[in-house]
Design goal:
Elements (H helix, E strand, L loop, with lengths): L9 H25 L2 H8 E2 L2 E2 L5 H27 L10 H24 L37 H7 L6 H4 L4 H28 L4 H30 L1
Antiparallel strand pairs: 1-2
Helix pairs in contact: 1-8, 3-4, 3-7, 4-5, 4-8, 5-7, 5-8, 7-8
């Protein structure tokens, strides 16, 4: 078992964290500043609703089955803490536990914010046959007349919440494992963005919901991982 990401890699860890965080943040802010959410949704739906809302490929395969697949991956990751396979064998148990805690924190942060969010889904808007009025998610505390609890994107987070699993690999001293980390990051982030696109096409989420979900998942998961790593360094020293 190889544990090569010691205290001397703390700077690399912080660099990876901030680089990816700024990347997601700039995209999300740019999208919001362009005020494109309602314009995009208006291209996909009308007063009768959204044509792709119940499309089998989107609703069944990419939503329902996608959610089930994400759950299987998460449960596998739990198993790999004690019975690692493949590249996970190259990490220490501490690193695998920290990655799992970071993923859990990422997923829980989205659930917690959704619980108190007053933002309703696009398909609830009056313009799309619902009862709610459009209010940007930045206007906290303002009811839009709908059911709320739509921000951030829950389905997208089922994959985006797994992004922190890449961290112990991304900051590893071995180049081959850092390459593995990049693959995990690209796979989880790419799948999360696909899940978000699916929900946008169905009328369930604005594009910004997916982008901010990525920001929240990465910031929370990577922040927790770094905090745990710092604590681990202190205990070792």
């Amino acid at each position: 078992m190889n544990d090569s990401s010691g205290p001397h890699l703390t700077g690399l860890q912080e660099n990876v964290f901030f680089r990816y965080f700024i990347f997601f943040l700039l995209i999300a802010f740019s999208w919001d500043l362009a005020d494109l959410d309602l314009k995009v949704m208006s291209l996909l739906g009308d007063s009768r609703g959204f044509a792709f809302k119940n499309h089998p490929l989107l609703a069944l395969w990419l939503h329902d089955r996608g959610k089930q697949l994400a759950l299987v991956v998460f449960l596998a990751m739990v198993t790999w803490v004690w019975r690692p396979v493949g590249p996970w064998k190259q990490l220490s148990k501490d690193q695998r536990v920290m990655a799992l805690i970071a993923v859990l924190a990422s997923l829980l942060s989205v659930s917690l914010i959704k619980r108190y969010s007053l933002t309703s889904c696009p398909w609830e808007l009056e313009v799309f046959g619902g009862v709610a009025r459009y209010i940007p998610h930045w206007q906290w505390g303002v009811h839009d007349g709908g059911g709320g609890r739509c921000f951030p994107g829950g389905h997208a987070s089922s994959a985006l919440g797994l992004m922190p699993a890449s961290l112990p690999f991304l900051v590893h001293s071995q180049p081959s494992l850092r390459k593995t980390g990049r693959r995990i990051f690209l796979l989880t982030s790419g799948t999360g963005l696909l899940f978000g696109l699916v929900q946008t096409l169905r009328g369930a989420h604005y594009p910004s919901h997916t982008l901010w979900t990525a920001v929240i998942c990465w910031a929370t998961g990577a922040g927790v991982y770094l905090a745990l790593q710092r604590r681990r360094i202190v205990l070792v020293q």
